[in-house]
Amino acid sequence: MRRDQWLAVLMAGAATFAAAVVSAQTQPAQPGYGQPAQPGYGQPAQPGYGQPAQPGYGQPAQPGHGQPAQPGYGQPAQPGYGQPAQPGYGQPSYGPPPYQPPRRSRKRSAIEIGTLYGTSAAYGVGMGVWLSSELRLDDPGVFMIAPAVLGVAAPVGVYFLDDPELPRGLPAAIAAGMFIGAGEGLGIASYQYVTANEGDEWGFLGFSRSMALGATLGGAAGFATGYYLEPTPQSTAFATSGVVWGTVIGSMYGYGASREGVGYSIANDSASLGGFIGFNVGLAGAAGLSAVWIPEWQQLGWMWAGAGIGAAASLPIYLLYVGEDAPPAKRGLVFTGTASLVGIGAGAIFSSSFGREFAWLDDDPVPGAGPVLTFAAPLPLHNGVGVQVGGVIY
Known about the structure:
Helices cover 53% and strands 4% of the residues.
């Protein structure tokens, strides 16, 4: 056959094959794409996308996005964001917990319990001395048995009291209560001794009774205060410092204001009375201030330093009492007491801006403990100077 005849035969065969393929795809019973019973896309009974019974996206019974029973986002029973029972943001069981303000540790510190151990040992010795005095023991070896035994038994009692550990502030309150109570008993016994007529003094037995009773009642009061009012260790230390400052300054006032020309024994009566009054004034003042102001440890240190600096700065005043016609030099004690008191106040004010140098001893005040004055400092003004204070309301 010629070349043109071969070309015609090939073209006719290609046309026949194409017609057969098209015809096969359009027949109902023939395999191909798009037939109802044949696999292909878009057929009702065949697997493919968009078929009612076939897997694909968007079909009611097939897995895909947005189907009621299929996994996907936004389905009522499927995991996704915003579903009532599914994990996600905004769900009741997910997300950060509500903000809670930081609170300080409620456990007592080692220094606090150590102070109670030392105070309890002294209390036990004192109680032993009182007991031996009541028993009228004269032999020194026998007399010291009770102080030795009770001096060890009291710290042992603290050991068991601290198991489990006492809450913060309670050990300091108990120790301060015993110290303040013993001081109260000492003040009463001292004033009775210097003012009583000869032969009416209480003597050593009355002295030991007063100290033992005062320390016991003070310890019980300290426990109740620490348990119910929960004072901070700084407040307790401030109250203890207040009674010491009050006693010393009150004694200065009492002795300095005594009558001129009387002997030491008479002037000593005034000093004893002034010290006893100052003790209680200092206790009441410190307790009252502690209700609105919790001093920091560094402030207490500077208050003690201020008292010493004030007393030292007042010493030149005694040079003015030199001479025969000068008033008695004991009058200078009134100025010394005043200078010490001013130094205490100055130490509290100016140390408030120095930073918490002893912050390792304690934590911040508990939020929610009520209004607390945290600092006081000078405030320069246009025509003078004032005082600025600050703190927390809750």
